Amino acid sequence: MQKTLSYVKVDLERDVSLLHKWQQQPYVIPYWKLDVSFEAYKKHLNSFLADQHQTLYLGLIDGVPMSYWEAYWVRGDVVERCYDPHPKDQGIHLLIGEESYLGKGYALPLLRAIVHFQFLSKGTEKVIAEPDIQNEKMIHVFEKCGFEKVKPIELPDKTGMLMYCYRETFERRWKDVFQTITT
Predict the structure, then answer these.
(1) C-alpha span between 103 and 146 (Å, rounded)
(2) Which of 46, 99, 105, 153 is the residue whose CA sits 20 to 30 A from 183?
(3) Which residues are in the N-acetyltransferase domain (predicted)?
């Protein structure tokens, strides 16, 4: 991919309008269920930004914001009740917000880069995901990245497919990619 991938932490004032717009997209609504008023979304985003167990990012391609990411520690998240988590397990949520970036193959390299970043945290041996069980496209992207299906889980807003990506599996699968990046 001959593009520059980058991530910036979400800033409430700078990003709330863009993120609210993305949440209103027909392809996002069924999975994120945040098609709410601007005021309600701003309140939601503010509370998520204040939550110390997660960090929110915009994903950019060549400097253009096009995706949203929630990188989180499983401890302190609702999903921790769905399996026996290790204290350093992390999780990831994502959405491609700009429709023009859908179906272009960007989700996998972006996911791979942020999971690599999560594995830089000492002690993290597993990154999890729990995409909506009906979101077959995202489940497929997670599998291509190195995640494996574990089991369906019931969460407050969806039935998710709990998926694990183990450090060893990830590093073996993407060794050549990350050696190239770091050398």
Answers:
(1) 19
(2) 105
(3) 5-168
Q: What is the mean pLDDT of residues 134-146?
A: 96
Domain boundaries, the chain: 5-182
Max distance between CA atoms of the chain, in angstroms, equals: 47
Separation between Cα atoms, residue 125 and residue 77, nearest integer Å: 18
* Whether pLDDT at 3 is above 60: yes
Model confidence at 177, pLDDT cuts 50, 70, 90, reads confident
DSSP per residue, 69-120: EEEEESTTSGGGGGS---TT-EEEEEEE--GGGTTSS-HHHHHHHHHHHHHT
CATH-assigned architecture of domain 5-182 = 3-Layer(aba) Sandwich (3.40)
Given this model, what pLDDT does residue 183 score? 40
CB distance 109 to 5 below 8 Å: yes
- The helix (run of H) or strand (run of E) holding residue 56 is strand 54-61
Q: Does residue 5 carry a pLDDT above 80? A: yes
Q: Which of 143, 160, 144 is nearest to 152 (CA)?
A: 160
